[in-house]
Amino acid sequence: MKERKENEPAVNAEMDEKTPPPGVPPPSESVAELDGLKLKEFLTELGKTDVIEFEYENKDTHIVIKKEPLGRIMGDEIEEKPQSAIESPPPPPPPKPEAKTKILKSPAVGAFYLVENDKPIVSVGDVTKKGKKLGWVDSMGIPQEIFAPSDCRIISILTSDSSAVEWGQELFEIEEI
Amino acid sequence: MFKKVLVANRGEIALRIIRALKELSIKSVAVYSEADKDSLPVQLADDKICIGPPPASASYLNISQIISAALVKKCDAIHPGYGFLAENLHFAEICETYGLTYIGPSSEAIALAGQKAKLIEIVKKNKIPVIPGSNGVCKDVKEALKTALQIKFPVIVKASAGGGGKGMRVAMNQSEFANAYDVASSEAKAAFLNPDIYLEKFLEGPKHIEIQIAADRMGNVVYFPERDCSIQRNHQKILEESPSPKMPPKLRKKLGETACKIAKITKYDTVGTIEFLVIKNNFYFMEMNARIQVEHPVTELVSDIDLMKLQITLAAGEKLQLRQDDIKILCSSVECRINSEDANFRPSMGQITRLDIPGGPGVRVDTALRQGIVMTPFYDSMIAKIITYGRSRGEAIEKMKRSLGELKIEGVDTNIELHKKILDDENFRKGCYSTDFIKIMK
After folding, report:
1. Where in the sequence is the domain holding B23, given as residue range(s)?
2. Which of A21, B133, B212, B442 is the most exposed place for a label (fewest CB within 10 A)?
3. In DSSP terms, which residues pair with B410 in a beta bridge?
4. ipTM for the complex shown
């Protein structure tokens, strides 16, 4: 019986029943009984090992089992890679830091205001605290204020001061801090 | 005349208003919910504005969003269409407050039309026949039962603020009365925020006949040929025609003159409808609808007068140019309301995967439906109106049968087959039918 690990030169060796290949169940019964279900079981177990070639010869029985290296089993879809690469794939690239940007939309139809007492309430680049008023939509004379939902930086102001806005119109792009 | 009008509705009626505005060289602004952003009215209007999320309560019924939309878009008037905010007194009053013309009658007329029990009392005082019933709103179930026993069962329990078949229950006898009263009252409270109830004798087998009127602010009023709206399911109209088959000319004239009298009593202006129940040659006033109605196209075809444009010009304060003699019956017309609903009249949802619209001579289709759109549970199930006309009633019906054969809607269930069945019904063909037609149709 011969066994050979992938990437190792095939060597001929005498079958030692007491020392089966690693991972292969010891043939407690005669290997000659490798037929039917027992052969199937043996193959299953063999499949779990990294043994790629197995040969057995006994009287009238001669069995040769060869496993194809992984790359070829999968066809042309992947390149053959060294065993070590298959066993320990390269670590996934570190996840990109999740962009914590948010769009704040108009809660009502009306006129959008950004300026209070002749001064803009916020400007692009400003860092504000959660709950700070950023602007408001005047709907039939009733102001509907837009507040910072969290500590954030103003990335862009998407609608200009005193513009008519519709429901759901994008007003601010913010980055949560 | 108006320069820019906000169209505060959706679907086919929004499209109808936008078309009329274009012909009058008035700019249109379509309001829309998120669900309707790709709809035909939104695409065809001169301008558009999103007013809220899909539920009607947050968009098409949201008064502050709609008024605000009219203000920011610098409109001078708002057309409410039918349903939603049409006939909403509060809305009409707010429009006035903000200097926007509400395209409809005055607030006073809307208020009166909305208090059906009170209006019946006024009409009765003017010697116009009304259906025997309670004197105005019933105080409670006990008083209502007393009235029911006086006018004799069967009776119909109605919501004073009702409409569209809601808040309406028939009690055939005393044992059914308390339940009918409770159900109608709670339905009225839920639908109209007003649980007031009044009673009428339930007339078996009447015809539902309505008269379209048009009036200006100078007191000029005209009436149009009657519409027969007796084909109903669950008290909701599904097929209308004009003129009504077998209507004696004398009764037609009497109904028209009575409708004009009611319009004058209530100081009604723009266009509106007076509804009657008719049994043999007797008629009874039922209610007044202070809006343009779903079924207005049959009258437009029969008289060859554009009611939508007329409504807009009258709302702008123009004088009524029509005299009664100008209005004639020029043809016969039938309208089928196509609903996305199953055989039990339950709304059917889904995506429209196929849509073939009928055409050819004598066919008009009012719809905002397009292939690919999704029927949602947010809005009414009426998806199209097919209206046909011909030199005779028979010709209009044949054109309708052909049109329904050409109409293909796939992706949702529709009532097209029901309409075909109605058109083939012997009694319908003979013009012998009343409001119980669907119930007894074979």
Report:
1. 4-103
2. B442
3. B354
4. 0.84
